Amino acid sequence: MDIKELVGKIEEELKEIRRDFHTYPELSNQEFRTADRICQYLESWGIEYEKGIAGTGIVAVVRGEKPGKTVGIRADMDALPIEEKRESCYRSKNPGVMHACGHDAHVTIALGAAKVFQAIKKELEGNVKFFFQPAEETTGGAERMIAEGCLEHPHVDYVLGLHVSSGYEAGHIGVRYGKMMAASDEFTIELSGKASHGAHPDLGNDTVVAAAAVINGLQTLVSRNVSPVNPAVCTIGKVQGGVAGNVVCDRLQMDGILRTLDPETRQFLRDRLTDVVEHTAKAYGSRGKVVFHSSYGALINTDSVVDVVKQVAEEIVGDTHVSVESEPDMGTEDFSYFAAERPSCFWHLGCANKEKGICADIHNEMFDIDETCLAIGVEIQVLSALKLLEK
Q: Active-site residue 327, yes or no?
């Protein structure tokens, strides 16, 4: 099986597919055209699929004609509420919506891998499943797809995922062992005291003063309660309260976010934050309440699966073009749900090209990719899956 040759034959098709998705981006849970187009491609290639998973999601499978394990390949589908500014023949035609995070490339790479596996299914030992996932940017489509059984029938043994990265030039990739991306917990703090005239503060309980003490206290969560070699973030980004400059504020709300890299630290900081808020508020004569709005868990790669992807990538692009990332990213990614269920590797695919002016970061109105990265992504995913099937 000459995988490079098979990928080379579809390289131009990959560009056409990606440009089609880029031209018609859709927001989270609204990926209706995107899903229809994916199904059209799968059907035209004779690939088995099931649609309507977690709303607009699709699960496809190429069943090898020889027995073996099953590897899953995940691709998120949704776009962002951003007005595209970069001029191109494939610029978004949907006002205020843009594939500014590269999910159009992710879908294209998964489709390309599916087509390659379909071409070699007679020699394939095992199966490869493809998860075309909605709502990575908002409501966590990965969790819902897993809840609806995407990792079974057939049972999935490993999962691969990738994200394009403007931090690397096309032809370069990054891998990370262990803790790769953070868990996210948004929270709301409500402080309640007693109003009074500003001329008589002794008759009230000032939640502004209590809030100042709470904010200062929360700065010690990371600096004094967490190991300095265990990254964590606590941010208060919004404070609202008060009705007038001469009235002691009786109600105040703050909104913030926690980012952590393991379940133990995550729970510890949630508990510690609650203690600091409640007891500090009480010390200032107010009452404190914390409400958490949990988001994605930490993305923790499996080292043995990272080894496979790293080895494959070095064979394809050369070891000088493969970076082992030394630090985790405190951003979030709902591939974490797959990584929590199965041995997995999530990796970065370089997509920048400074000579062509393609260097804007993701979530930017000027974001684009050097399309040469598409074939590289397909080849790495295919060969990595094949090596995992051999394990």
A: no
Whose tokens are 């095992």? That residue is 126
Give the mean model confidence (pLDDT) for residues 284-309.
97
Q: Look at the chain and report how many structural domains it folds into.
A: 2
Which of 262, 294, 326 finishes a domain?
A: 294
* 325 in active site: no
Distances (CA, A) of 36 to 57, 63, 131, 338: 10, 22, 14, 24
CB 64 within 8 A of CB 127: yes
Residue 193's identity, in one-letter code, is G
Q: Domain containing 150 — which CATH number?
A: 3.40.630.10
User: Would the pLDDT of 318 be above 80?
Assistant: yes
Residues 174 and 64 in one domain: yes
Residues 152 and 32 in one domain: yes
Q: Are residues 108 and 231 in the same domain?
A: no
Tell me what pLDDT residue 391 has.
82
Contact 188, 254 (CB under 8 A): yes
CA distance 390 to 369: 33
191: domain range? 183-294
Beta bridge partners of 223: none
Instruction: Work out the angle at residue 39's Cα, subtended by the Cα atoms of residues 90 and 133, and round it to the nearest 5 degrees.
Output: 80
pLDDT per residue over 101-147, tens digit each?
999 999 999 999 999 999 999 999 999 999 999 999 999 999 999 99
Catalytic option among 84, 137, 371, 379: 371
Whether 369 contacts 358, CB under 8 Å: yes
Residues 59 and 162 grouped into a single domain: yes
Question: Which among 177, 296, 337, 379 is annotated as catalytic?
Answer: 296
